[in-house]
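INFO batch 0412 | record 1 of 1 | parsing
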Amino acid sequence: MLTITDTVPAPAALAVPRHIGFIADGNRRWATSHGLPVEQGHRYGAAVVHQVLAQCRTLGVEAASVFLMSDRNFHRPEHEVAELVDVITDMLDVEAAASTGPVRVLAQLSAGHRFPGRLADAIRRTEEVTADRPGMTVCFGIGYDGRADIRQAVARALRSPDYDERAELSVDRYLSTGGLPDLELIVRSAGERRLSGFLLYQAADATMHFDDRYWPDYDRQALEEALAAHAAQQRTFGR
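INFO prediction complete | emitting tokens
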């Protein structure tokens, strides 16, 4: 379980980001390396998601977003998709009880894809019961595509009664993360060095931290390293 210990620098010293994103990658490879079924890799990964979110709350993070499943993941073998849906459904129920703030599901499913009923019900339940909580916002990317998110935000902005063709088009509030601060730190596990469509617009000025650990092995030390890497950045925003 992730906990604050005497060896962890104070949040101020770590320059705690307002919004952290996690691309939780490597569950399948972790399972294979341990001789376990793929579903067990996803279950171990789900437990780590809850631990990392608890740590983020302790540190005072305003929002934490976790990329669980892209739209393209629905093209995996049917039995594996069903297993992953079961794991995510259980994860939502656990987080609905644990979260101190709203839980949002970010999704841009392409034509022909829809959430299975049990997952759709869990999404609705979780968002409804957490909507008015005042603490850290949790966003789960499930069937999410960053380019589709931008497209729908632009389309909504153009249809807005406030649209003015002479002014800069403002799409921020129409994104699936509308109202939240942009990402300041993105962590991707399992040694991959790409965003895979995760919150592309919101990641414009984010620190990128790539970790070689598979997600089920992501622990307190890994999070401390990511925070330290972010704190070491000189964020001038081009000035």
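INFO post-check: The chain has six helices and six strands.
INFO record closed
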